[in-house]
Fold each of these.
Amino acid sequence: MNPHRDVTGGESVARLFDRTINFLHRVSGLLVVFNVSSGICHLGDMSVK
């Protein structure tokens, strides 16, 4: 076993995990904005009717 290789592998996994978390945060943020905007439009349609 090469401990140095394990260290670099762990760092790459941690970076990939951080990137995935950041990506999920961005996607969830966009989904929240989309849901809120669509909800406001839906309420506007209901109030118009």
Amino acid sequence: MQKRKTDQVTVSDLPFMDLVTSTKAAGNGGSSEKKDGEEASKVPDMVSPIRVQRKKLLILDLNGLLADINQDDRNSHLSHGKVRGKLVFKRPYCDDFLRFCISNFELGIWSSRLKANTDAVVDILMKDLKQHLLFCWDSSKCTATGHYTVENKNKPLVLKELNKLWNKEEPDLPRQQGGPHTAIFPYSYSYKNDKDDSLGPGGDLRLYLENLATADDVQRYVEDHPFGQLQITERNPNWKLYAQILDGRVP
């Protein structure tokens, strides 16, 4: 989703990752065996970090990226928790992926869910790893549009305006001013895909982030290596709706 600049706004119902160069130096980490996504009883050592001069800020969404959150009670026995009547199915290799992200990036979470629900999902997915988050944003940081999503006419369409990162809403965030090509939109995860390995060692998303962690220029790398869903443009069949949002019009 665009709003004046292509990098400044994302539609909340797309799995979302924002990538920004940080000014903090990379830290040291321990080692870890490959995991299958099941939670360990203790927080394991971090994955050995990739050698980089400075870490980049990585912002992750929850639903569709780290988990599939739905109301499919027929398979509740496969879920890892429940929040407000919705089941949380953790994505395979989620634990290992989060350790990788914490070791190699400055990590934040941004969800369009209410704070109580966001915190509950983070507790299920991250447990003690959440102490390593720089921040955890919820719907209070999103912008209401007055419209509803194309996929669900009962779900409000809100925006994640990335310029809030640059406006010092969180003064301790390590970041530089953003520009085009600082976000990617992976395809949404479904728990029914039992062969999904995107987050695991050798998985497509994991490999993408490994390469990006060492890239000298984030924007150039993202521009030269498109990943996942493309940006919404005038060619999108629902462009009329998005054009209204661009113009600031409400129903």
Amino acid sequence: HQVAYDEAKILHRDISSGNILISEDGKSGFLIDWDFSKPVVDRETPRQHERTGTWQFMSAKLLLGKATCHKRADDLESFFHVLCWVLLKHGPHSLTATKVVERLNQNYDYVMISEGRSIGGTHKETSLRSRAMRDPEMVSDVCLKKLLVDFEDLVAVRYDHAPSNEDREQYDKIAARMQYDDALLDRQPVWKYDKFLERLEDWDWIYERFCEATRDSSQLSDARIDRKQQLEAAYVKYMVTGRTEGARNTRTGSKKRGADDPDSRPASSKKHRG
């Protein structure tokens, strides 16, 4: 993705579980299906202002209609949502099947129609702001937990409130006393906000975090947890007892029925590959 963006000036715009293929040994991966990709005019401005992608994995900003165009940061957030979605279904955590179904429906399937437009992302934004991945039930693997918490901090900065002038004045005083030493300032909210905004533009940091998390080969040998039967039973119960509106496996964009077309919500135009 980074090579395509930096060298070919192409933005993928449809990061999803079905478009990321991983080899059986877990050592190789492929990003496929570039149908919705677009040339980038400059570092952050695609030529067309439109929402595209697979609904479950689109950024909260795009789903909420807060973004004027699809940016690289939206693709990065989609990678985060894919990782969390797979974790909920197959990863090591202590959530009950009912809680998994609730999170899948609220964070990834939820959609409502407002003035003829499909809107979603409310729960995604709330989860990011509250740093939901820090919940002890969410991830039991220590190495994966650290990665997800850092990844969440990175993509969530887009939804955090910017520090006030008073906050910055106070921070400047503290930073001066500490001689602007990052090692001493990394717990300061203003430092974290500015640093993660900076890292959002340069993907080297999150790339290194992934490399660090996978250096220990023993961390790559965990078998996929099969929760299919439990989740199916919990989903049926969830459907009976009440649920929000949902759009499952819906891909939106100019080559399919658009994200703003209400009739496109129930359509399953894209199937996940495993």
Amino acid sequence: MYYPLANTFSSLIVRMASGYGYNGGKSRCFTFWQELRKCYAMADHPTQCVLQSEDYLECLHNTKELARARRIRAEILKKSGQRKKKEATLRKTSQAALDSKVMRLGIITNKND
């Protein structure tokens, strides 16, 4: 049976850096690397280590974190655009109320008068 991820895991296992960080201690992803290595050594098929591989790659590249941040930012921009539209319609209706004949009859007083 052919496992396309087997080559990916094999190349991942071979290409790991030293495991030391810039300041001499363990690198930030070393524990994830150890978990992947342990799973790969004990697994019957490399596909059993997909979760550990995803954790390790996420630690290295932060792809899921960045995608989530982009989605949050897009939602914030979308909501701020909706808020601006609501504010614009409120301004229009308040201006229409100021220009109405009810104002001229003295029922509603203008703050500027």
